[in-house]
Each structure stands twice: as structure tokens, then as C-alpha cells.
Amino acid sequence: xxxxxxxxxxxxxxxxxxxxxxxxxxxxxxxxxxxxxxxxxxxxxxxxxxxxxxxxxxxxxxxxxxxxxxxxxxxxxxxxxxxxxxxxxxxxxxxxxxxxxxxxxxxxxxxxxxxxxxxxxxxxxxxxxxxxxxxxxxxxxxxxxxxxxxxxxxxxxxxxxxxxxxxxxxxxxxxxxxxxxxxxxxxxxxxxxxxxxxxxxxxxxxxxxxxxxxxxxxxxxxx
Length: 223
Fold this sequence. Notes:
Helix content: 55-70%
Number of helices: 11
Low-confidence stretches: none
Strand content: under 5%
Largest sheet: 2 strands, antiparallel
Structural class: mainly alpha
């Protein structure tokens, strides 16, 4: 792979020296001596790498390589775009729906028996919150249900974008503006989707996913 587009000596060091997740790095002075780069420049690039989530810096532990997490890298850009108004949550929601429908077939065949039990438990917990006294909005269950369905995909970019979507959704506090009827409609569809998955009727599950997106997209962007 060509690395000329990667304008960071520090990131080049991680790649060229095969620094794996969990590995401890030498000091910036040692890295600078090895690469012929100033410590000041490496310090700036280290800050960028920390923002990307690929390294951490802790007292007494020094610099340590962290696993690649696309959500951590992309979320700040998403939140910035939403906060400035240069992007909208509706645009992000459309991307997320496209991802879920496009990767549906690949994701659902990977679900295990435990995953299906977990999905049923999430549905039951959500109804318990919606039918309780007082009523609680099942935000955590909403997030977990969708992420569980796509959680076994071997694709860090898909997984990262979906996690970043739900983090941005939480930050946007959109649940404050939805009616009780909206939530009962959402979870009626979720329950039917889980029923279809548990029956191995994946095409029916995809149809229900698309129907609930189409039905609710004019009312809310989360679904």
C-alpha cells in the first residue's frame, strides 16, 4: 500500500515498525532519532494520532498503541459538521440507513443463538420501559438492538460508522422531540424484525426494516 498520502512521520513509524495494539512505544526522543524528525513535530503528530484513537498516553505507561477504531476517528468530524450546520443529521441518518439495508444479508447470517436471545431480551426490556410507570424511553435498547444485528460483520468501517451514528444521535438529544406513539411504532417494527430473524426469515426481516424506515422517516430520523 502506498503511504505517500499519509502525511505523518509518527503514523509512518507505527506502520513501518509493525507496532501492534497493546505494544508500548519508545519515547518521542528515541523515535525522532530513529526517523530524523524533530521531537516538536512528533509531538504535534502524536496529538493527531491520539485524536484518531490509535495511541494513548498514560502516566508511568508512556505511549501505547491502541486498536484501530473507526468510530473514534470519525465521530469528532461528524459532531463538528452537525454543530456548525455544514452537515445535517438527516444526511447522516440516510447514510446509516443505506449501510444497514446494504449489509443486511451479510450481517444477519452471522447472528448466533445467543445474539437472538439478546435481541429478544432487548425488545422485552424496551416494552417494559414503554409500558412502565413512569414511562422511560428505551434509548439504550434502541442502540443495542441495531448494533447487535450488525455487530458480527467483519468490517471495521461499517461498525465504526454505525457506532458513530448512535453517538451522534445521543448527542443530538432527538428523543426529546418524539411522541409516545412514535416509540410504540418503532418497537412494534423492532419486535417483528427480531421475530423474523429468530425464524431465519431474513428477507422478511429486510422488508420490515425497509418498511419501518419508509414509514418513520418523515416523523424522525433515528428509527
